[in-house]
Each structure stands twice: as structure tokens, then as C-alpha cells.
Amino acid sequence: MSAPPAEDLLEEWKSEQERLRQQVVEVDTEDWQRKPDFSGLQRVGGMDLSFIKGDDFNACAQLVVLSYPDLKLLYEDSQMVTLTAPYVAGFLAFRETPFLLEALQRLRMKQPNLLPQVVFVDGNGLFHYREFGLACHLGVLSGLPCVGVAKNLLQVQGVHKSEEHQAQIAALQKGGDSFPLTAASGKVLGKALRSSDSSSKPVYVSVGHRISLDTAVRLTHSCCRYRVPEPIRQADCRSREYLRKHFPAADACTKE
Fold it and tell me: What percent of the chain lies above the pLDDT cut of 70?
């Protein structure tokens, strides 16, 4: 494991997050986002990184593009990358975003007609220590609408795994039900969503860029066949399959 980054680097990262945070657009910007059935949306993207167990630096960066609404695979890109920045809670984007942007750029160059109209990221957006998680970072730098969907609750800004939180989860009766994740300041940073009837464990949805929270939640639910929305699930499955194929002696794992 590498040594933690110097304090001056963390301060530089914080300043960069604060600067880019000013560019986040938290409202719907596309016509399809305002349609009840998302008419006009044809391509949804999913991005993820998968690691070889015991190796924190070599990873498979994955991009998938699926058709909407039938969620059929249109494009995939699997690329082994070497991460140079260490993992630091709250600064995941500085470790992963460069490789996700490269995958989008390869698609822009090879098949621009398949560029996704919205990207799902396995991580948080505004639901973050400084309201600028991976989905925001990727959204602002790519210019694409982006949604953050996390599998685990980030306990931040007064949101905790309290008895009240567990009671709210228990009250989610069916797929599509949700409740707000409200910071101590009173600002709603995201929503916990029961993504399918068959899964009682929620996912945590937050705005990345160029989409409203209500639309992000509604779109996430529409893309769920299982607990995790299909663009992220496909990115995760395909990146792990790539690692199994090329590194058969190693166990593939993904970050939570």
C-alpha cells in the first residue's frame, strides 16, 4: 500500500472540487428528461472499475452503452489501467475519473453516434462530504448528464444508519418507493430508492450533473431489472468477466 497523500495535495484536491462544484447543474437540461416515459432517450451508459483482489492499482475500467428502454448492449469498452492516485475517502474521483473520461473519449472518436445521453456511475454525486462526488466530477468534465448510484450508504453530513433510517427503509413497500437523504443543514442530497419489488435493500441515488434528483430517481428505477440499475450492473459484470478471462488465477472484486 502506498503512503497517504500529503496534506497539501488534499488541500489542492479540495480546492479543485470546490471550483468544479460551481459548474454542477442540478436541473433537467434535456427534453427527454421532462417526458413521463423518457421519450427521446435512446442510449444510457454505465461505468465502473473492477480490481484484482489484493491489487489496489491495476484495474479494468469499463464503459457500456445500452439501448433504452429495452436495455440491450450497444457498445462496450474494457481497458486495463494503472491507477496512480491512492484511495482517499471523499476523493475517489481523482483516482478514477481520468480513466473513465478516456473511455468516453475513445467512444467519441470511434462511434460518436453511440455516445450515451446519460451516464450512470457506481458511486455518489451530490451525496458527498463536499457535495461533489465521482458522478459530479465525471459529469462536469465530460459535459454529459450523470447519475450517481451507490450500493452502500455514505454516512455524511448528518445522514447516518440510525434506527430512523432503518425504519424508513422498512417502510419502502415496492419498487420505485424512495425517501430523501437530508443533511443536517436541511438540504436534500439524494434519495434512498427501493429499485425493484424483489429487493428490499435500497440503492442511494444522487445528482451528478445536468439532471434533477426526481428525474434521476425515476430514471434509475426505470433501468432496474434487479437491485442495481442495468447500466452499472452490466459494467460491473463485464469488467469482472474481463479480469477473469485475462487474469484467471486472480479473484476479481469491485469496490462497494
Answer: 95
Residue 134: name the closest of 228, 24, 3, 15 by CA: 24
pTM over 0.90: yes
Q: What tens digit of pLDDT does each residue of 51-102 get?
A: 988 888 899 999 999 999 999 999 999 999 999 998 899 999 999 999 999 9
What the chain holds in terms of domains, given with CATH numbers, is: 13-254 (3.30.2170.10)
User: How far is the C-alpha of 203 from the C-alpha of 153, rounded, in Å?
Assistant: 8
Report the alpha-carbon angle 94-43-33, nearest 5: 85
Q: How distant is the alpha carbon of residue 32 from its chain centre? A: 20
C-alpha dist (Å) from residue 154 to 124, 181, 190: 8, 10, 11
| Number of Cβ atoms within 10 Å of the Cβ of 240 | 19
